[in-house]
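Cross-check.
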Amino acid sequence: MKRLLAVLGIFALGISLCWPGASSAQVYGGTVIYAAGADPDSLDPANAESNPSEAVNRMMYENLARFDEKLRIVPGLATDWKVSSDGLTWTFNLRKGVKFHDGTPFNAEAVKVFIERMIGPEKPSRAGLYTPFVNTVEVVDEFTVKVNLKAPFAFFLNNLAHSASGIISPTALKTYGKDIARRPVGTGPFKFVEWVHGDHLTMVRNDEYWGGKPYLDKITVKTVKEDSARVMMLQSGDAHLIVRIPAEDIPRLEKDPNIKLDSTETLRVLYLGFNCAKKPFTDVRVRQAISYAIDKESIVKNIYQGRALVASGMVAPLTTGYVPIQGYPYDPEKAKKLLAEAGFPKGLKAKLWSPQGRYPKDFEMAQAIQQQLKKVGVECSLDTMEWAAYLAALRKPVETNESEIFLLGWAPSTAEARWILYPLFATEQWIPKGNNRSFYSNKEFDDLVNKFTRATNKADMDRYLKAAQEILAKDAPSIPILVTKETIGYTKKLHGVINSPLELTYFDHKTYLEK
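Predicted model, tokenized:
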């Protein structure tokens, strides 16, 4: 048991937590204007699938376990837990004296309702965090609950700490049903007031918060889609905080004495994927050749102005399970040699797909890659489309999928490597069932993923994770290009801002605004 808990508690450095200096006194009161880049999609954690939704939900809801400022798993609404020696039964002791925003007491029955909803017939969009793993849930007493798994699952606590695992008031869930997506009721430091779609969402302080009275009176999250408009709001004082600052605006904002910028390395890797079921990308030599043909350092330096990290593998350094991988250095001569060995001494033609505006500088990066591949004889047509259409095209089954090379990004919202390796590369996750858009298949890789998922000690987990990532690097169904950084800006009068590697920016009960 202790060995398993050790596995689950080990995390790399992570969240940037911006606390005040000794000269700044914490004060109660104030309204903070937070300018977000998009509207939330749902205020029901179990059905929320966007960063704006997860950010606001983290201020209203809480989980049994949570990620701390170093991405370690620590107690939330559960004060502690233990797991049986066979890894199948988890027992949670719950925090006493906690109430939901509607006055409903938090207890074991509320946890039971939450988990049974996730594994029940309703199947929220994030049910996949639970249905493959959880068998039953039992109320032991008012403040003790047991969760019985179908098989040992090394990352169960990570799933509990996921934003989708925010616990809803069972009373509100019964009253509002699916309308809970617009009427959120949690236990967090801030309570919901109103949501005007496309304009703003308002929260106020939860005076009965179990962790102590929050400092802020009110938070208004404004939807401001244009990057330039958000930057202007920060500079003019119309917003206290903005997210997703473009790299070209950073030098100017750095000179403003009233603004603080905070850049955090994320868990997101931007990568090129191959359709491994379509010739010539069925040949690993072609995939490896293209990997050698891409100058990642040039992309990071010239397109991202150094505000990103060169990626060697699909797992970013801050992710649990990260293993340093020997990637593909820029070597155009080796790329040409491999292409010749694969039967393409004069090069080949291919289709390169890219989104435009989904990720920072995505299309500009695709254009640079197009030019780099041209130098080794790979002539790519470059096509882009609206994001929903782009995803729809990539979700077509193997028989009708027209992709060849495509640009995408992926971040594990559970902060662990399985959330990358399994959905993107396991054989049983081929589109349209899962997210394996590369149609990659390797039985040895699949077996290793299953083994580290069920590992009960860290040594075994590390060994399986390393072997799986080495196979992936050799087979090259994708080319990891870079790890993104998330830069936010806020007035220096605002303290206690949480800028997470999970690409979430939010406040807690300790956040305050100087008067």
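Residues 1-15, 19-23 have pLDDT under 50 and may be disordered. The chain has two domains: 2-258+492-513, 266-484. Passed to J.P. for a second look.
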